[in-house]
TrEMBL record:
Superkingdom in the source lineage: Archaea
Organism: Halobacterium litoreum
Domain UspA: 1-147
Upper classification of the organism: Archaea, Methanobacteriati, Methanobacteriota, Stenosarchaea group, Halobacteria
Protein name: Universal stress protein
InterPro entries to which the protein is assigned, alphabetical: Rossmann-like_a/b/a_fold, Universal_stress_UspA, UspA
Gene3D superfamilies, per database record: HUPs
Family: Belongs to the universal stress protein A family.
SUPFAM superfamilies listed in its UniProt record: Adenine nucleotide alpha hydrolases-like
Short name of any one Pfam family annotated for the protein: Usp
Length: 158
């Protein structure tokens, strides 16, 4: 059913919350897990400057130790979890708008399922900040499993 499962990760708690689900599915179906870290060039442009962003876009991440370390930490978390279960894993780094980069990866790498975490924002914060998970959900044609980072917390129902 699934041969290639993508886990987009930025190293956040929300992204890490999806790893267990993705690795479990990969183990069940004999799939390969692909951990993708996307350097958000729009956010990075403000903090690093144009020259650094150009390096990232050209795939010269090795020249940027802080960015490389962040990417390796994020994808390494996925690789470690997959390795513990004997699941094959590949680590990838890309640059661009996260939602767009994820969709491109899905198309280019024949991904069958995307498993990603979400902060579970709602209301104004969601409108202002946007939602990578929502954009991926709406603009891909494959199944997307969104794992709420706060799923274990009690919901206050009124």
């Amino acid at each position: 059913m699934y041969d290639n499962i993508l886990i987009p990760t930025d190293g956040s708690e929300a992204a890490e919350s999806a790893v267990e689900q993705a690795v479990d599915l990969a183990a069940k179906y004999g799939a390969t897990v692909h951990a993708l870290y996307v350097v958000d060039v729009d956010a990075t442009n403000l903090s690093l400057g144009t020259e650094q962003v150009d390096r990232i876009r050209q795939g010269r991440i090795d020249e940027m130790p802080e960015v490389k370390a962040e990417a390796e930490k994020a994808t390494g978390y996925v690789a470690e979890a997959a390795g513990e279960r004997g699941v094959p894993v590949e680590e990838h780094v890309s640059a661009g708008s996260p939602a767009r980069a994820i969709r491109k990866f899905v198309e280019d790498e024949d991904v069958d399922l995307v498993v990603m975490g979400s902060h579970g924002r709602s209301g104004l914060s969601r409108v202002v900040l946007g939602s990578v998970a929502e954009k991926v959900l709406r603009r891909t044609r494959i199944p997307v499993l969104v794992v709420d980072a706060h799923a274990d917390e009690e919901v206050d129902e009124e």
